Fold this sequence. Notes:
Blueprint: E1 2-7, H1 16-30, E2 35-40, H2 61-70, E3 74-78, H3 79-84, E4 97-99, H4 101-110, E5 113-116
Parallel strand pairs: 1-2, 1-5, 2-3, 3-4
Helix pairs in contact: 1-2
Amino acid sequence: xxxxxxxxxxxxxxxxxxxxxxxxxxxxxxxxxxxxxxxxxxxxxxxxxxxxxxxxxxxxxxxxxxxxxxxxxxxxxxxxxxxxxxxxxxxxxxxxxxxxxxxxxxxxxxxxxxxxx
Length: 117
């Protein structure tokens, strides 16, 4: 099964990215043969910024995205959303990549399950 998780919220201040990534990680744990794909849009483009530092005991979106990537998940970032927020490709987490609405559309059409946070 192919899962697409679309995240729209900023990495901190809202728990939507945290919850979306928790779901992604649980799918990967419980259904290791399934495909998990994450598309970061709007303020969620900042979720892919490398070098995030959070207080001890607080969740870290960068570490969560790295976990998804290490478990064969895919993470794409809306390129125009990132550009509008001054996020450059060289500033994002290794393994993520800038993308387009055309690629999001292809992922959407190819997915069995889609959820948005």
